[in-house]
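Workshop exercise sheet. Pairs work together: one partner reads the sequence aloud, the other fills in the structure field after running the prediction. Swap roles for the next sheet.
Pair: D.N. / O.F.
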Amino acid sequence: MYGHRNPLKPYLARVLSKEDKVLFSEAVDNVGVKAFRSAYIMLWLSVAESIKRKFQELASRDNTANKIVGEIAKKEAAHQSVDLYLLEQAKAYGFISDSEFQKLEHIYNLRCIFGHPYEEQPKIEALVAAASDAIEFVLSKPLQLRHSYLSQQVKQLTENHAFLDDVKLPVEKFAAVVFEKADPTLNLWFLQKIWSELEGTFSDASLEIYRKRGIWFSRTYLTLGTDTIFLSWDVVTDLTRYGQILSRILAENNLFNMLSEHPKGIIFNTLLKAAETSYSAAKRLELLHDDNYLTDHQNERFIGLLNTLSSKYLASAGLHPKYFITKIIAQLKSRDWYTQNPAIQLIKKIGAEKINILPDGDQIRLGNNILQAANGGATQCILFIREIATNRSSWSTSLIEGIVGECLFSEERKSIRIKTSCLVDALKLLGAVSEEESKKIILSLLKKLNDCTDISVRSAVRDDVVQAISSLTLLDPKYSELSALREFFNDAKFDEVDTEGENTTLEE
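Structure field:
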């Protein structure tokens, strides 16, 4: 039937593991010299060793596999056969199905028979049949894990604090490892087990690590399985079962964009309600809003919710300050130190990096109002100005221009309005920037001063400005650019005001 060609040789190309190829190649070679008994034994050994190696690969991450490897080692140390034990554990673990177990057990039983020298050796047809089953059920299969392994991963992900670092990248890498090894027919079952464990944890802050881990893991797993998982997945039903955790998972741009309008609406409504008390839900909605994934009506509802939440809450949620800078400015305008001081503390908490991404106009307005509050005696605002003068960090020139400018004029009213109580502290900010930045700020200030139509200034106040600038320029060369401002106040023709009516305090 087979003539001179070796019927096992074509199967060799289907063997995945190089270790398995070594043993299977020996079976092929034995067939070539008509040593069929040896070929059958080597064929079985390639199956048994392949199963054993799969358990060894899993032992470091799976307790069940680790116990099986330990039991194999004990049996081998006691010179006991492990072949049937390997088959039974492979079936229990999910490597092979019940029908596959029966066929592989038949190969094992024949191996025991053919292993005796007084029995007749197997026919070539039996060898080919055994090779076909060995390849189909074990040797051509990647390490695809089933219920036992996947259940163990669910337990580790949702219960074992030390299992993975509380960092996104290691979790995503682990998800990719599990995805490659898992039986694809169990992907959705596996994820649903994770979501079921995490859905009820949202009232317990101490379980946040498991929620984050589950969200990162699930997003990566779903992304990798996009072509298969989404085909048969009833997303709406799962959103009704696992709404809190699944809404946060699917509110990732690439996943959200794959959904129809119905599940998108469920996700939005779930997150909008959760955003009243959940920072992560508010942040997730912001990302969908900024990337234009929400409808016009959803955008209106999102902005409406933000208007009801405090600036402190929104800042703590990590939202872009553009959503609440108006609230902070209103706090600074309040004339109430107990409102103004927390506002400046919040600005410091938000930090220069985020404040700097606001439009220049908003940063200047913020600087104006910081100075107004400081001029009115808000201690934290005064200290904030002094801190920038001492250590600018990365606060923008626009913010600094707003603070300095508010000491000298009201841009809105087109009037020169000197605020002397914080004048020196504000002017010192120009020594905290580079010479080029200082020139740029002063040129902008001079333009706005020249644009003022109300130039009523008491002579004493004007003299205070000139004296303050002169003192600073004498103190340190870094203030030399201020001389241009001094010249303006020396040379400009002001409408002299001799009464105490000039407003030098807090502006409305």
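Discussion prompt: Confidence is low (pLDDT under 50) at residues 499-508. What would you look at next?
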